[in-house]
Amino acid sequence: MSSAKSLRALLATSQQKSLVVPGVGTPLEALSAERAGFEAIYLSGYAVAAWNHGLPDIGLLGARDTAKALAAVTRVVSVPVICDADTGYGDEASVHSTVRLLEAAGAAAIQFEDQTWPKKCGHMSDKTVIGADEATRKVEAAVAARTNPDTVIIARTDSIATHGIDEALRRAQMFKDAGADVLFIDAPQSMEHLKRIGSTTPGPLLVNMSEGGRTPVLSAPELNALGFGIALFPASSLFMAAQSIENLFAELKEKEDTRDWRERMYGLDELNDLVHLEDYNRLGTR
Q: What is the residue-wise DSSP string for 3-66?
């Protein structure tokens, strides 16, 4: 079964129990997520920019950067990968090209948003969005571009921040009518927003739980009760790791010693196990 078909099977049951999806920016995180038992993984544009380039999520990366990061992840894990493709990096023709590029790199699902370019993280201020008709044409282009009919197209609108909840709901319905498989209204600002989206928008629905962002952070069961089938935690490991790394380096600089950290670290053997060293060693002895 293809990864896209596997993801569709998971989505078919997501109204009964939300699919919890962690975000990653690196293959190492993806390996950890797969080992933990997650059934799907999200390649976050925010995380790719920060982990791989040390950059903010303000439209500094392009389609080829995303495809390279995606291929590195799909090379080492077997679970479906949902790929954040920002705005599609241009007009309808660019969206068409991006779908083909990311399908070839192993994406089971591809997410597009309706921001202007350069885009920003959905929880940043001063975003702008393109017109609803243009955004809908880009969704149509994504749907038409699929070479695998099982590839999931996720359509996101950032218009709550710019036009309010009514316009966001209207755009979501337009995207659904254009053929989007999953709808994603980003950065709801309150429980009232979440309740209204969950009760009025056709599913499957994706919701983004970004710690420190604009949306109240809830558990997956709480989100499922509100009507959301996919609970996305796009940057939790990045936030945790960035804080831990900074603390480690501060203490190393001060004490010139890492022994107090040993219980919070993998050792060499544990990390080698995570990256499947023994599998490669067996290949060398056959």
A: HHHHHHHHHHTTTTSPEEEEEESSHHHHHHHHHHT-S-EEE-HHHHHHHHH---SSS---HHHH
Domain ranges in the chain are 3-241, 243-285
Task: Dump pLDDT digits (tens) for 59-114.
Answer: 999 999 999 999 999 999 999 999 999 999 999 999 999 999 999 999 999 999 99
E strand or H helix that includes residue 279:
helix 277-285
Euclidean distance between CA atoms 224 and 152, whole angstroms: 20
Class level of CATH domain 3-241: alpha beta
- For the stretch 22-47, pLDDT in tens is 999 999 999 999 999 999 999 999 99
What is the number of alpha carbons within 13 Å of residue 222 lying toward its C-beta? 7
Please give the structure tokens belonging to residue 37. 């038992």
Asked if 111 contacts 85 with a C-beta cutoff of 8 angstroms, the reply is yes
CA 133 to each of CA 68, 95, 259: distance values in angstroms, whole numbers, following the listed order: 31, 15, 59
Q: Is the pTM value of this prediction over 0.90?
A: yes
